Amino acid sequence: MSGATQLLKLRGRAQFKSGTGRILFRETRAQILIHCIWDDLDPPSFLWDWQHDLQEPEPPMLRYFLQPADTLARLSFEFAKLRADIAHGRIPDSASASICADIDRQMIQWASFTLSAGQAAVWNYHELDVPESPHVWNGMVHAYAQSPAPGVWNTYRVIRILVTRSQELLCRRLKHTFTNAEQEEQAAYFRRVRRQMTDEICAGVPPMLGHAGPKALNSSCPLTSAYSSIWPLFFAGTCALERIGPECWEVSLFSASESATSAQRTSAASAQAGWVLGRLEYISRVMGLRWAEGIAAVLRGDFRLHRDLLPESGSDEPPWVRAASRQVNENGQHSRVREVDDSVADDAASRKASSQGRGPIWTGAGAAVNQRAVSPLEIRNLLDDGPDLTRTPGRAM
Questions:
Q1: pLDDT one-digit tens code per residue, 343-358
Q2: Is residue 209 within 8 Å of 226, Cβ to Cβ?
Q3: Helix (H), strand (E), coil (C) string for 197-214
Q4: CA 311 – CA 306 distance, rounded (Å)
Q5: How far apart are CA 278 and CA 265, in angstroms?
Q6: Whole-model pTM?
Q7: Tell me: the pLDDT tens digits for 27-79?
Q8: How many angstroms separate the most distant Cα atoms in the chain?
Q9: Which of 226, 305, 370, 383 has the fewest Cβ atoms within 10 angstroms?
Q10: Which CA distances in Å does 147 have to 37, 69, 121, 197, 237?
Q11: Domains in the chain: how many in total?
Q12: CA gap 386, 24 in Å, rounded
């Protein structure tokens, strides 16, 4: 990403003279900002300082319709700065929590405005039931109005996932200021948001891979849009994994015996994680973006938790949580590869969720191929080699 950032800056404002140059700048900017957020880096100032120059050559009507994408970039830029400030101790936790909550509110307002304002002709979407297909999660896709809506909406979902992770981290650091009931309410909200964003990412990926069906918008260049689907799938995968925990996940992947309970195999979280892995493998093996399979290997084999998101280890914690806490405390590692919290308690309703009336929930039981241990250095290289991209509307039949 550092090379892409330098190249983008070297191109200067001259790249804004053409429509293609402006499109590439916006798309690359989104990737760089997700990279900065993920690694707690200060975002390069030119990414937003050049906004006026970016918009100046555009006709007023085009500028109007692109406003939601640029507003999302501004919010991403502000959140990246906040994450860097938190990581480097430049801001108190209480102030960070307040700013983070405000960004979360602005993100919600962004989604509401984008779906209802005049630009909705470009950015609107609805849910669409489609025939059974392994390319579709749970028999439903998002039918978008036109490009580049699918990619921008999935970027929004990635940012909201990361915002809730920061909020959860800060709430745990400030837990002495909240009652137990308030802490439980906050944790439930964060998990609820992540689950919704995960479901929406899964519904937004088929149009980007050309699998949304004849009644929905499909990418005119699936190879390009598949490239920008990898990071949303990665973050969706981490959210699915946190709902089942690494112990159950390993059983689901590696056990071929009857000891793996049917509940583990059929739970919504396990099935969703398997579907995400299947999409990453499809992007790698069928579409040729081979590094996507490396990202799938990270999801399979390196379920490590960020130290700040680990719970206080106690006798009532699951064994894997106590082991993870002990390991992190002993070796002092700050894993930036996996920022997954301890929200591993299975949702009973999710485990019993039925797919009746919907398409198949592909469990990915046959996807456990080429499995091997992945070293931390290799994981870091995998993450650096690729792009760092990273309403429940009425359903149409």
A1: 333 333 333 333 333 3
A2: yes
A3: HHHHHHHHHHHHHCCCCC
A4: 10
A5: 15
A6: 0.74
A7: 889 989 998 998 899 999 999 999 999 999 999 988 888 899 999 999 999 99
A8: 63
A9: 370
A10: 25, 12, 11, 20, 24
A11: 1
A12: 16
